[in-house]
Write a structure and sequence with these properties.
This protein has three helices and four strands, in the order E-H-E-E-H-E-H. It has helices spanning 15-25, 46-49, 65-76; strands at 6-10, 31-34, 40-42, 58-62. It is globular and about 30 Å long.
Length: 79
């Protein structure tokens, strides 16, 4: 990702959370999820998201603060 990025760390514990992240990411610019092993996935691709290790927290990286807020809020609503 180029320029300023915004990120938060979260635990994804269910397929529903993964799906919700994917749905919201599709409405955003570029959103990347990084697992503890450094593997990266495009959050707009559910298949890509499913390749990550969710046994620990992951980092969600977005290009704007507004997108980051939308992603974080969407995940909190499921917890």
């Amino acid at each position: 990702m180029m320029g300023t990025t915004h990120e938060f760390t979260t635990r994804i514990r269910s397929f529903a959370e993964c799906q919700r992240l994917n749905q919201v990411a599709k409405e955003c610019g570029q959103v990347i999820v990084i697992d503890r092993n450094g593997n990266q996935a495009n959050a707009q691709s559910l298949l890509s998201l499913m390749s990550l290790d969710y046994s620990a927290s992951v980092r969600v990286v977005a290009s704007t603060a507004e997108e980051l807020f939308a992603l974080h809020t969407a995940l909190l609503a499921l917890k």
